Amino acid sequence: MARPRTVLLTGAAGGLGTLMRGLLPAYGYELRLLDVLPIPGEPDAITADLADKDALRAAVSGVDAVLHLAGISLEASFDKILKANIEGTYNLYEAARAEGVRRIVFASSNHAVGFTPRPMGTDPLIPVATAHRPDTFYGLSKAFGEDLAQFYWDKHGLETVSVRIGSCFAEPTSVRMLSVWMSPGDGARLFDAALTAEHVGHTVVYGSSANTRLWWDLSSARALGYEPRDDSERYAEKLIAEQGELDPARPEHACLGGHFTTDPPVWPH
């Protein structure tokens, strides 16, 4: 695929969106920014909710591709997840279809398969073909988004790369994150590959750096042209000294989703 010139970045005020606002222009992209919150210092950014179908239609008009990072990124009530992550993602896809946008890069999550047991010892890496096992309403919304992407490819020919993101921060903050961390630089490299690779149809990839303690198979991401450069291992000694090694006897350490598989809901009953 020819390198897109103009990319709509949804969720541009969020943590990952802020990182990508700083990194992706170096790859030649002109970013059109959208978020439900105003973005300081970005007077041309679009302030709109994913429920606003007219605003989404205008936002995608004339862009070459969409990097969809918007939505609730932690667990919340089903009603909130439904509106933001499920209905909102549908609204975006329908706007993109109507405006003839050719490709979306969708921020999925490892929590779409969160109840999958993590590899132990010599176990093989977890493939992208593993069945959905969402660990929360949030994870369920990401499983829905992947299925929606497949439907829009099969039905309408709208291509998607669904990126099951681990944790994208400047550095990992937990021992679990040593296995799922994606450096911001590698995040930009992966999103660039997802935006430019040819004939992706609907491709699911895991989003992480080339970590020594990696849990999942990055082969589908590498097939897009992604070449991760970073490894969380340089942070391992400090984190393990502070937190100890992961203990497979603890439920929150036994599955990919970590504490998402065990924590009680965080919203008021």
What does this structure look like?
With 269 residues, the chain is of the alpha/beta class. It has nine helices and seven strands. It has helices at 15-23, 53-60, 78-99, 137-156, 177-180, 184-196, 219-223, 236-243, 251-254, and strands at residues 6-10, 30-35, 46-47, 65-68, 103-109, 159-165, 202-207. It has a seven-stranded parallel β-sheet, sandwiched between helices. Helix 2 packs across helix 3. It is globular and about 50 Å long. The termini are far apart. The model has no long low-confidence stretch (mean pLDDT 95).
Describe this structure in a few short sentences:
The protein is α/β, with parallel strands linked by helices and 269 residues long. The chain is 35% helix and 14% strand.
Distance between the termini: 48 Å
Sheet bearing the most strands, described?
7 strands, parallel
- Describe the global form: globular
How big is the Rg?
18 Å
* Structural class by secondary-structure content: alpha/beta
List unreliable stretches of 5+ residues. Answer: none
Identify the strand order in the major beta sheet: 3-2-1-4-5-6-7
Order of helices and strands: EHEEHEHEHEHHEHHH
Average predicted local confidence, pLDDT: 95
Helix content: 25-40%
Strand fraction equals 5-15%
Count of helical regions: 9
What's the β-strand tally?
7
Layout of SSEs?
Blueprint (H helix, E strand, L loop, with lengths): L5 E5 L4 H9 L6 E6 L10 E2 L5 H8 L4 E4 L9 H22 L3 E7 L27 H20 L2 E7 L11 H4 L3 H13 L5 E6 L11 H5 L12 H8 L7 H4 L15
Parallel strand pairs: 1-2, 1-4, 2-3, 4-5, 5-6, 6-7
Helix pairs in contact: 1-6, 2-3, 3-4
